[in-house]
Amino acid sequence: MFIGREKELKKLNALYNTDVFQFPVIYGRRRVGKTALINEFVGDKDAICFTGIESTSIQNLDNLSGAIHRYVGGLGTAPIYPSFQAALEAIFELSVEKRLIFVIDEYPYVAKAYKAFSSILQKLIDKYKDNCKLYLILCGSSMSFMEEQVLGYKSPLYGRRTAQFKILPFDFSESRKYFSGFSDEDMAIIYGIVGGTPQYLLQMNDSLSVEDNIKENILDPNSYLFEEPGNLLKQEVQKAALYNAIISAVASGSTKLSEISTKVGEETSACAACLKKLLALGIIKKEVPFGDSGTKKTIYAIDDNLFRFWYRFIPKNLSLVQNDMIDVAYNSIASGMGTYMGAVFEEICKQYLWHLNRMGKAPATFISLGRWWGNDPKEKKQVEIDIIAECDKDTAIFGECKWNNESVDISVLNTLVYRSGLFSYKNVHLYLFAKSGFTNGCVERAEELGNVTLVTFDNIIQDL
Q1: Residue 40 · residue 2 · CB < 8 Å
Q2: Any idea what the Cα angle at residue 37 is, between residues 210 and 132, rounded to 5°?
Q3: What is the tens place of the pLDDT at every residue in 75-102?
Q4: What topology does CATH give the domain 348-463?
Q5: For the chain, give me the number of helices (H) and strands (E)?
Q6: Of the candidates 280, 200, 145, 229, the residue with the CA atom closest to the CA atom of residue 33
Q7: Most CB within 10 Å of its CB: which of 2, 44, 196, 244?
Q8: Whether pLDDT at 216 is above 90
Q9: DSSP letters of 196-208?
Q10: Helix (H, G, I), strand (E, B) or coil at 382
Q11: Residue 396 to residues 123, 366, 423: CA-CA distances in angstroms?
């Protein structure tokens, strides 16, 4: 069953219906659903689909020849074209008279195996684009390669693409579509564990409890997800051990470059290079306090929920897992899930505010959103604000998010009121987000202030 990607499919089909040469580029990290999107789009349309492999140019040419042979209805063993240029030119010729989709999946493998491939493709595009109906799709999982060697200005293909699609993991609302058996709270926890990567969501079973999903799909050494973070790093980077150490350092609270460098025992330049790669892969994110354009306060955090969950809980419980003490390991995880879910709930609340913004239901349309931390000059201590969204130079939204089982009381609201006053915005709207509702005192105070919106997790579920 194919889920989501409605906007991407709509755009791909709109390009297809032009009936002229089109060249969309599709890229994104592994497991995010690029091939599934292409397969859904191609459907029963005329298409030659070829997937590059990490092998020699001869093997890739052999496979491409076979894909062409199958399309034209050839019988028996496929004749191998004498060169990539001959094979590609045959495909362009087929598209002169009719609409034809040509997909090269895992394009970086092909281009790395045969260095002249992109140049050949560029020359054929320039030769045929005005008189053919080819719909050429290049797809790849190597983010840096696709951005530099396909989309970058130094690439032979630069300027030839007609569209590009960076495929990202699903947000919380989209991830919910995969399941009908989880309660809303359990679905939030599942999202917190595996995020919105389709391949990871498919490992979860909504006929099981969250506890059983963690035990069977995370803590079982034979499960897909137990080895996934390590396997993905090995596929994407060299010196995976260093990357593993850096992610572990970030997960344990070393969030500044200098702290990470000290923790892993490597020069800051080496760590910075690894962090750049992890940023491109969507595993790590870089943050600065909202409104701060400098770099001195830059911190790093784990952006992918599966990596965040795994590095938070698995290493310290690894001995228990390896000695088949799964129940004990689970209890250790369960005791920390309340704290862990705080940041997940913050992200869900941010997604909710962006949803309101798109729908025109926010108190004012905002142009940027983030979180803030810094010095409180009055109390002379470091403080944080979960959410700040700026609408214009005079107007902003401030938010606080609480994922706990107790009702949020008036003290939380008063703190948010106070901290919003650390900024010079004239028009301020406050949002309090709560998993379990609000005390009567908090509700009365919000009504009294008149610029406060109280949002429960149930409210978020109803609106998304």
Answers
A1: yes
A2: 175
A3: 667 788 999 999 999 999 999 999 999 9
A4: Trna Endonuclease; Chain: A, domain 1 (3.40.1350)
A5: 20, 12
A6: 200
A7: 196
A8: yes
A9: T-HHHHTT--TTS
A10: strand
A11: 51, 8, 9
